[in-house]
């Protein structure tokens, strides 16, 4: 037979399970996990104390249990705020918790009223759940959408249930009610109220996992130093664009470029300055290319830009702009000498029937010629003798 006590014990078990789930995120570096763990640990203790009503002294099963539950909900909010990089509203949480506890003590030892105690605690829970719902953005990026919306909606539903609970008990003032009353309304509020933390923890775990997956995907697809696309991502895009160009006969061009005498930059100014130059290269390269182009660091001081729908003339124009943009002096500090750098660029445009590897090899060979001819220049790769250029489909900008 379903009873308030059995609900409490089931939820306690669920909170213990949630603690184990949260433990799997320990060491993930995800902000908020510590607070969510502490919140669930306190909830387990609180639920056990609630379940001991009539066995343990009231001060433990009423004041002690509520204090722990109030703290656990506050910790959940703190976890969500930390996770989302927002300030934790410590003062309002402490004041709200203290006010709820003061009412609870008054309606226990002053005027003993279970309905009024429930109203006080419900107002506190309502406020914190609404604050959690408002903390979580309503329209996050697609990868985070489901966990964010799940948690946000769960928080608002829980807030609404606590508001209803508060109103319902406010209307019962004067009635003699028992805490573990087996009445259907009490069981319904119990079920939803005690499931609040596991539901929010589930949302928190989903949010944390989504973030870990997003960060892992970002790390795999981006160069950690410059933020440009990684070699891996670049070849994925290149294969996709190559297949598209072959299928619909559109143009595809490739620039491969390399910082000139970069070893000298490192040797003269230090490796850290070399790193600054590499970042500077990517920032300024990205200003020259379109949004649909892919700029990647292939390794060391070698980069590539893939230009979908760009014929050879367009690619040569972009390469000329890129070379000019990357003929730069970096002024890192007023007291130090400026760091000048240039790049050499090889340009190749896909010929009909050419493979991606062949296109890369031609662009690389052109870069090699640019280096051999004195650097700081653009060299166009000749078309393979048996092939003719792909007809132009679309103009640059
Ligand atoms: N700072 C820094 N240097 C790097 C990084 N990766 C590779 N390098 C350096 O890039 C330099 C490349 O030197 P080289 O291959 O001789 O080429 P270069 O000096 O640019 O000469 P050319 O390409 O012929 O103009 C080496 O000194 C590498 O240590 C990096 O991530 N950061």
From TrEMBL:
GO molecular function, one term: diguanylate cyclase activity
InterPro entries with a match to the protein in the record: Diguanylate_Cyclase, GGDEF_dom, Nucleotide_cyclase, Rev_trsase/Diguanyl_cyclase
Keyword rRNA-binding listed: no
Keywords on record: Membrane, Nucleotidyltransferase, Transferase, Transmembrane, Transmembrane helix
Domain of life: Bacteria
Protein name: diguanylate cyclase
SMART domains documented for this protein: GGDEF
Entry keyword annotation includes Membrane: yes
Catalytically driven reaction(s): 2 GTP = 3',3'-c-di-GMP + 2 diphosphate
Pfam families: GGDEF (PF00990)
NCBIfam families on file: GGDEF
Enzyme Commission code(s) on record: 2.7.7.65
Transmembrane segments: 6-25, 62-80, 92-108, 114-132, 153-171, 183-205
Organism name: Massilia suwonensis
Domain GGDEF: 250-383
């Amino acid at each position: 037979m379903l009873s308030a006590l059995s609900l409490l014990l089931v939820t306690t078990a669920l909170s213990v399970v949630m603690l184990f789930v949260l433990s799997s995120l320990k060491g993930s570096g995800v902000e908020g996990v510590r607070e969510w763990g502490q919140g669930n640990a306190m909830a387990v203790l609180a639920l056990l104390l609630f379940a001991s009503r009539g066995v343990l002294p009231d001060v433990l099963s009423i004041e002690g249990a509520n204090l722990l539950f109030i703290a656990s909900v506050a910790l959940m909010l703190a976890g969500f705020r930390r996770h989302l990089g927002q300030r934790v509203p410590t003062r309002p949480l402490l004041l709200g918790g203290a006010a709820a506890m003061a009412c609870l003590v008054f309606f226990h030892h002053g005027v003993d009223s279970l309905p009024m105690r429930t109203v006080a605690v419900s107002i506190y829970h309502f406020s914190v759940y609404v604050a959690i719902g408002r903390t979580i953005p309503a329209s996050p990026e697609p990868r985070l959408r489901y966990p964010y919306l799940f948690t946000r909606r769960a928080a608002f539903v829980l807030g609404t249930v606590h508001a209803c609970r508060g109103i319902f008990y406010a209307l019962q003032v004067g009635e003699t009610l028992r805490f573990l009353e087996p009445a259907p309304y009490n069981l319904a509020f119990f079920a939803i109220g005690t499931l609040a933390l596991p539901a929010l923890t589930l949302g928190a775990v989903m949010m944390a996992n989504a973030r870990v997956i997003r960060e892992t995907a970002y790390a795999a697809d981006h160069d950690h130093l410059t933020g440009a696309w990684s070699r891996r991502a670049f070849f994925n895009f290149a294969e996709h664009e190559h297949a598209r160009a072959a299928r619909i006969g559109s143009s595809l061009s490739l620039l491969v470029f390399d910082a000139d005498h970069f070893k000298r930059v490192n040797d003269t100014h230090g490796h850290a300055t070399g790193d600054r130059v590499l970042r500077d290269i990517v920032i300024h390269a990205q200003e020259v290319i379109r949004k649909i182009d892919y700029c990647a660091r292939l390794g060391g001081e070698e980069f590539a830009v893939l230009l979908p729908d760009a014929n050879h003339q367009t690619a040569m124009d972009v390469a000329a702009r890129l070379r000019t943009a990357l003929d730069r002096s970096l002024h890192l500090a007023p007291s130090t000498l400026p760091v000048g750098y240039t790049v050499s660029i090889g340009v190749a445009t896909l010929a009909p029937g050419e493979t991606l590897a062949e296109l890369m090899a031609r662009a690389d060979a052109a870069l090699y010629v640019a280096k051999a001819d004195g650097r700081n220049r653009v060299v166009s790769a000749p078309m393979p003798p048996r092939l003719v250029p792909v007809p132009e489909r679309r103009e640059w900008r």
